[in-house]
Design brief:
This protein is an alpha+beta fold and 359 residues long. Among the domains are: 83 residues, conserved putative lor/sdh protein from methanococcus maripaludis s2 fold (Beta Barrel); 93 residues, Efflux pump adaptor protein, beta barrel domain (Elongation Factor Tu (Ef-tu), domain 3, Beta Barrel); 74 residues. Helices cover 27% and strands 38% of the residues. It is built from five helices and 20 strands. The strands form five sheets. A six-stranded antiparallel β-barrel has the order 3-9-12-11-10-13. Strands 4-6-7 form a three-stranded antiparallel beta sheet. Strands 14-15-19 form a three-stranded antiparallel beta sheet, with no helix packed on it. Strand 14 and strand 15 form a beta hairpin. The longest helix has 37 residues. The radius of gyration is 43 Å and the shape is elongated.
């Protein structure tokens, strides 16, 4: 009996093995493992982009210190720092007894000169028929014509002087020369202007960053290029656009001025702040680039997964880093081929399932 029990015990695992493999079935493999879902990148030969580093100070795109009329007294201050103003808006009004008196005198002179001119012209009109009948001589008529002409010239000169006096009076109001923000007010009611500024206005809707760029990098910077700008003391990063590339190189520093404009519509950035800028530049050649996420393998033997008919195969490549964070492929693949661009660690030799459109 003991021998029979042993025999049956040996047969039990064999029987279990037989049933576990019935009909030749194998353990199921998840679809994801057989064909991972990945993004595909079409390789193209493109212009390579580099970076040029420079630092500078951001300034308002337009600013002005507005002079006060010397000798005038501040009558009214209409704004304060931080106010938004429009072109032509009155900021500070002054008064001047001397200028006011000059304006009144000029206006009186206009009235007197116009009266004399009108009288001379009336006399000329009245006596001209007498000259035609010979009642008065031609010499007398010539004298009347000259007098009327001179009187009219004096009247016109008086009008010009009056306009100048009126303009001088209007200059007693300091106005905004453009749309902007009042950044400082120096005038105080009752004080006499001594020639200093009354107020300062700046257009801060955009900032202009002036950057000294060395001549060795200058030809790689193009107008319209993107600029990444970091304000280290403010902890703010933003973007701008190169709007000017200098045409003169300083003999001492071997640099030229490059200007980048930064949008500041929210007025979140102060003028005068120091900034570090990274300018996108033209490397001057073309090549194939891939994102770092598309590279697999160790540093000493990197490779990519080349995809043909949704089938991935391993291909060793040689790469070198680019300033914009991408990798340039210098050997191993060519333009027109396709590679896996995401989840490379999930890929093996075999089928893959592309997701989305090609990158």
């Amino acid at each position: 009996m003991n021998r029979l029990i042993v025999t049956l015990g040996l047969l039990a695992p064999l029987t279990a093995c037989h049933f576990g493999s019935a009909h030749g079935e194998s353990p199921s493999v998840p679809t994801e493992a057989r064909s991972p879902r990945v993004e595909i990148l079409d390789l193209v030969d493109e212009d390579l982009v580099g970076h040029v580093q420079a630092s500078g100070t951001a300034a308002a795109i337009e600013s002005a210190s507005l002079a006060a009329p010397a000798g005038a007294v501040v009558r009214e201050v209409l704004v304060e720092p931080g106010d938004t103003v429009t072109k032509g808006q009155a900021l500070v009004r002054y008064k001047s007894d001397r200028i006011a008196a000059a304006q009144l005198q000029a206006e009186s002179s206009v009235v007197a000169a116009e009266t004399q001119a009108s009288h001379a012209e009336s006399e000329l009109a009245r006596l001209t028929p007498l000259a035609e009948r010979g009642t008065i001589s031609k010499a007398q008529l010539d004298t009347l014509q000259a007098q009327a002409k001179a009187a009219r010239a004096q009247a016109e000169a008086a009008v010009g002087a009056s306009r100048s006096a009126k303009a001088a009076a209007s200059d007693l109001t300091v106005r905004a020369p453009f749309d902007g923000v009042v950044t400082a007010v120096y005038a105080q009611v009752g004080e006499t202007a001594t020639g200093g500024p009354a107020a300062r206005v700046a257009d801060l809707s955009a900032l202009e960053l002036t950057l000294p760029v060395h001549e060795r990098d200058l030809m790689r910077v193009k107008k319209g290029a993107e600029a990444e700008v970091y304000f280290p003391n403010l902890g703010i990063t933003t973007t701008g656009e190169v709007t000017w590339v200098g045409l003169e190189i300083d003999r001492r520093t071997r640099t030229a001025q490059v200007e980048a404009t930064i949008d500041n519509g929210t007025l979140g950035l102060p003028a005068g702040a120091f900034a570090d800028a990274t300018l996108r530049s033209d490397i001057g050649r073309t090549g194939i680039t891939i994102p770092a996420a598309a590279l697999a393998g160790p540093d000493e033997a990197p490779f990519v997964w080349v995809v043909v008919d949704d089938h991935a195969s391993r291909r060793e490549v040689a790469v070198r880093p680019l300033p914009d964070g991408k990798l340039e492929v210098v050997e191993g693949v060519k333009a027109g081929e396709r590679i896996v661009a995401s989840r490379v660690s999930a890929v093996t030799e075999g089928p893959v399932t592309p997701v989305g459109g090609a990158l």
